[in-house]
């Protein structure tokens, strides 16, 4: 049986995602939801033509609390939308220090895919590479 929440998420079209209010509402629902609704929310956000700055900034605080699959979904979202600003990179850099190597490596893989990184991010990548050895 599909829940009312899942049905509502399915009904959102890409054109609706032009709304900053809707994007941030989806993010708020993501934070409050159980994992069964998180993936459909992310799949909707993948289809947005553009992500709101508010959603991006709020997502940074969430990254270190996610499991590996959820982190992978957020990093995929950033990739799909070519999000590579220094603020996002610094949020992802913090994950390089995770005790969970799987999660830290996801962050590393995302960061090495960015073409123009700042000095701070570059240094963190080199430190991570040296730590792996």
Brief synopsis:
This protein is 67% helix and 0% strand.
Describe this structure in words.
The protein has 133 residues and is an all-alpha fold. It has one domain (15-132). 67% of the residues lie in helices and 0% in strands. It contains eight helices and no strands. It has helices at residues 4-10, 20-32, 35-46, 53-62, 68-80, 86-93, 101-112, 119-132. The longest helix has 14 residues, at 119-132. The relative contact order is 0.10. The model has no long low-confidence stretch (mean pLDDT 93).
How does the SSE layout of this entry go?
Blueprint: H1 4-10, H2 20-32, H3 35-46, H4 53-62, H5 68-80, H6 86-93, H7 101-112, H8 119-132
Helix pairs in contact: 1-3, 2-3, 2-4, 3-5, 4-6, 5-7, 6-8
Tell me roughly what share of residues is in helical segments.
55-70%
Overall number of domains: 1
Overall, the morphology is: globular
Radius of gyration: 16 Å
Spans with pLDDT under 50 lasting ≥5 residues?
none
Tally of extended strands? 0
């Amino acid at each position: 049986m599909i829940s009312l929440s899942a049905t509502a998420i399915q009904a959102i079209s890409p054109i609706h995602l032009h709304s900053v209010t809707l994007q941030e509402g989806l993010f708020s629902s993501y934070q409050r939801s159980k994992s069964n609704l998180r993936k459909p929310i992310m799949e909707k956000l993948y289809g947005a033509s553009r992500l709101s700055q508010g959603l991006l900034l709020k997502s940074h605080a969430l990254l270190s609390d996610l499991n590996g699959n959820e982190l992978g979904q957020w990093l995929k979202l950033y990739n799909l939308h070519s999000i590579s600003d220094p603020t996002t990179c610094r949020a992802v850099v913090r994950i390089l220090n995770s005790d969970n190597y799987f999660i830290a490596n996801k962050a590393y893989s995302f960061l090495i895919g960015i073409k123009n990184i700042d000095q701070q991010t570059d240094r963190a990548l080199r430190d991570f590479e040296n730590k792996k050895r």
